[in-house]
Amino acid sequence: MPVRPSQRATADGAAAPAPSLASFVRAIPDFPQPGVLFRDLTPLWADGAAWARALGALARPFDAAPPQVVLGIEARGFLVAAALAARWSAGVMLARKPGKLPGSAAREEFTLEYGKATIETHRDLFALGSRVLIADDVIATGGTAVAALALVESLGLKPVGFAFVVAIAFLGGRAKLGSTLPVHAVLSYDAAGEALVRE
After folding, report:
1. Catalytically active residues, by annotation
2. Domain contains 103
3. Measuring CA to CA, how many Å separate 85 from each of 68, 117, 142, 147?
4. Cα 148 to Cα 164: distance, rounded to the nearest angstrom
């Protein structure tokens, strides 16, 4: 059985210091199209101990006043939102691609780093004024997060903040979210590819 990074030990058998969470994120050039450097979180999710650390770090700023609902953005944001919601016994709200949800759905269009897209969510699942945390795996240019915020507000729900595993800080997405709501990311990458880890 292969040894995962979080299971390594020193030569004398003692537990080695836990590796940086940044070591579980792969940089994939030219994906999903030329010129884009994609931050792949699948190695982080594949390592249970590392993901538990990342999840704890992601949730910590909101633990004192947990949301009632966590919105996850298709598709990797669903993993993040579901894990956070389970921690707080909160509901999960799905922001999906068009045509994936039955029934009446609210819709927002947004601009990605490499094109345009649309997300939708159900109108009738959560009570007016429910406190919602918006969660995703990565924030880059911020278009997805801005659209998710618009969806939450259009339904009469109360946004309480944003939680991202990774922020591509130099692409400016954080600035688009303004300063009214807290925005938290566990790993923030600068233009040189260096990661600031908040754990």
Report:
1. 76, 113
2. yes
3. 8, 26, 22, 21
4. 13
Orientation angle between helical segments 76-88 and 48-59, nearest 10 degrees: 70
Q: How many domains does one find in the chain?
A: 1
What are the Cα distances from residue 180, in Å, to 104, 138, 175? 30, 20, 11
State the residue for tokens 């990661």.
195
Which range of residues forms the domain containing residue 100?
20-197
| Pure H helices in the chain | 42-46, 48-59, 76-88, 143-154, 173-176
For the entire predicted model, the pTM comes to 0.90
Instruction: Give the distance from CA 85 to its chain's centroid.
Output: 13
128-166 pLDDT, tens digit each: 999 999 999 999 989 999 999 999 999 999 999 999 999
> Does residue 10 fall inside a structural domain?
no
